[in-house]
Specification:
Blueprint: H1 4-23, H2 28-57, H3 63-70, H4 74-86, E1 90-93, E2 96-99, H5 101-124, H6 129-139, H7 145-154, E3 180-181, E4 190-196, H8 201-209, E5 217-223, E6 228-232, E7 235-239, H9 241-244, E8 247-252, E9 263-264, E10 273-279, H10 285-293, E11 301-307, E12 314-318, E13 321-325, H11 327-330, E14 333-337
Antiparallel strand pairs: 1-2, 3-8, 4-5, 4-8, 5-6, 6-7, 9-14, 10-11, 10-14, 11-12, 12-13
Helix pairs in contact: 2-4, 2-5, 3-4, 5-6, 5-7
């Protein structure tokens, strides 16, 4: 650009628009400031959740344990703790961090939003279970208390989330936590899963990979210090006590465990007639409602018509409709042969 007038003009324009680009509401500076403010808010709220969890479990919360949970340096954690003290959300007893009444109320509000959002994803969407916790971690910092009230009303004011954790009420009251650890059962006991702990992620991922969910019934086959073997929905599961400690159950009577209902639809032979006896608790939300709308309800007659050339999917006739199902779906629909 050899023309001096153009150079002068470009310089004037740049001089005029630079403050706007940097300092306006949509400018770089304000975007950074808003992002930093949101990040600080998330650290504070995540810190309150962790302190509450420590108190709920009867464990001591220290700066080192908090820094480890937030995955930040100790110096950064000291800054967050100082801000929490300034806001009167915590106080310190020696090296322990304790919630004030205001801090406890704030923590319960965040936990309530998180668990309501997981319940919403489980019951109202087809989002994979592995995504529930991550999505709820985002929404808990965004939704207001009024929006949480509306969400709770839509869901029918549930008391427990999909994992069986109690959902705090708006007034701060917490429904009782149900069940005992699976490790406390002995050979021959019958039980129903009421809670699966979703932390740490590594253990939770393996439990869900085994298709274990609240509402499922099981029978203990062998329980010892090395492993626990149990039958659940017709499958035999083998887990170490460390994993089983993350599963809470309530004991049931033998009569409540109907073994016959756990015959998978996928075992039906071509031309064979059966009746639907149930759907696995692992099928939730939109997928479960779709199956119910198609007629997969208790007592409905179903017949296997034919398989695709590679054997999957398979066509079944139910209520005068021909429905194609993948094996992973028909494995989780239970029948009683006629």
């Amino acid at each position: 650009m050899d023309n001096p007038l153009l150079l002068i003009f470009a310089g004037v324009v740049l001089f005029i628009i630079t403050p706007y680009l940097i300092f306006s509401d949509k400018g770089i500076f304000n975007k950074y400031r808003k992002s930093k403010k949101l990040q600080d808010k998330e650290f504070i709220e995540n810190a309150l959740k962790f302190v509450y969890d420590c108190e709920y479990r009867g464990a001591a919360c220290t700066i080192n344990s908090l820094a480890g949970n937030l995955r930040i340096t100790t110096d950064h954690c000291v800054i967050i703790v100082t801000e929490l003290l300034r806001l009167n959300l915590i106080y310190k007893i020696d090296d322990r961090i304790v919630l004030t009444p205001e801090g406890r109320t704030y923590a319960l509000r965040i936990i309530r939003i998180h668990r309501l959002w997981e319940k919403y994803l489980a019951d109202k969407t087809g989002i994979n279970e592995k995504e529930w916790h991550y999505q709820a971690e985002i929404q808990e910092h965004i939704l207001s208390e009024n929006e949480a009230d509306e969400l709770s009303a839509i869901l029918g004011n549930p008391l427990y989330d999909p994992h069986g954790d109690p959902i705090p009420l708006r007034d701060g009251e917490i429904p009782p936590k149900k069940g005992i650890p699976l490790t406390r059962l002995v050979d021959g006991d019958f039980a129903e899963i009421v809670h699966i702990e979703d932390e740490p992620d590594t253990i939770y991922a393996q439990l869900t990979a085994l298709d274990l969910h609240p509402g499922m019934k099981l029978r203990i086959i062998d329980s010892n210090t090395q492993k626990i073997v149990f039958e659940c929905e017709g499958d035999e599961k083998i887990l170490s006590p460390i994993f089983c400690a993350n599963i809470s159950v309530v004991k049931i009577e033998h009569a409540q465990l109907q073994v016959k209902e756990y015959v998978p639809l996928s075992t039906l032979e071509e031309g064979e007639l059966a009746k639907i006896s149930g759907i696995s608790k692992s099928i939730r939300g939109l997928q479960r409602r779709r199956l119910l709308d198609l007629g997969f309800v208790h007592g409905s007659e179903i017949i296997k018509e034919f398989s695709s050339p590679n054997g999957d999917p398979v066509a079944f006739r139910i209520k005068n409709s021909l429905i194609a199902l993948r094996k992973e779906q028909s494995d989780k629909i239970f029948i009683e042969r006629v």
